[in-house]
Amino acid sequence: MKLAAIDIGSNAIRFQVSTVLDSSPTLLFKKLEYVRFPLRLGHDVFTTGRISDKSIGKFKKLMTAFKLLVDLYEVDDYMFCATSAMRESENGLALAQQVASELGVTIHIIDGNREAELINRAIHSFLTEKTYLHIDVGGGSTELNLYVKGKKIKTRSFKIGSVRVLERNDSPAMWEDMEHWVKEHIKKSFGKVTAVGTGGNISKIFELAKMKPGKTISRQKVKDIRDMVEGLSLEERIYKLQMNPDRADVIVPASGIYIQVMEWANASSILVPEVGLKDGIMMYLYEKNVSQKKIEF
């Protein structure tokens, strides 16, 4: 089975094609193609409330290219999902409708809870019976999910993201709301809390920490790396640390969100599975297609 997932985020747009290798009990998604294009829709939306004409032009070209790749790879199923920038923009729905009319592609503009639910599909296999606070920081929003004894008991999306914070479009009231939510729902009876981090910025921090996959990284180490990166100019981050330009400017504000939430939750370490929304979309498509096969007569 070949599947394609397209994650239309606030800082970048990601496209992936994978083939699914099901050799029970292991399910392997083998990557065939991956493209990350730095189209920062959040810059337009969080500043003016609209996607600019220039960005619309680029966006349509990108969707055309991705639809061609979907056709060339002859995938069995695919899904285009858009998150906070498109769902908050005045013209996001109209743009999705134009793409549907011109390319025959449906862009699902999903809310924060649906976004969290899809990402949870990707991280579930990394969790045990412990208490976890999953922190997913995007360009426009942060999704928090609380797991106790293997079950998700609370979820919430906040309009705080790396691009918003970078461009000072975040609200102090939203920060207070997030702090209240964390402190209200994490009980002492839950025991030690381990954070789980998803998003490109925490993955880059994990890489800079030279950690082995599956290991946790301490909150202090995340702070140390944040401080080291903050001490470098944008050019130094790009050339010395091999960051993309659109990663180099948001990694410090994004790090601050992870650190702050961990402090509120009293989580001293964070697990970084290096999966995200596109992986959750893949899992959703696989489960949907397998269940359909099972009920065929």
UniProtKB/TrEMBL annotation:
<protein>
    <submittedName>
        <fullName>Exopolyphosphatase / guanosine-5'-triphosphate,3'-diphosphate pyrophosphatase</fullName>
    </submittedName>
</protein>
<dbReference type="GO" id="GO:0016462">
    <property type="term" value="F:pyrophosphatase activity"/>
</dbReference>
<dbReference type="Pfam" id="PF02541">
    <property type="entry name" value="Ppx-GppA"/>
</dbReference>
<feature type="domain" description="Ppx/GppA phosphatase N-terminal">
    <location>
        <begin position="30"/>
        <end position="284"/>
    </location>
</feature>
<dbReference type="InterPro" id="IPR050273">
    <property type="entry name" value="GppA/Ppx_hydrolase"/>
</dbReference>
<dbReference type="InterPro" id="IPR043129">
    <property type="entry name" value="ATPase_NBD"/>
</dbReference>
<dbReference type="InterPro" id="IPR003695">
    <property type="entry name" value="Ppx_GppA_N"/>
</dbReference>
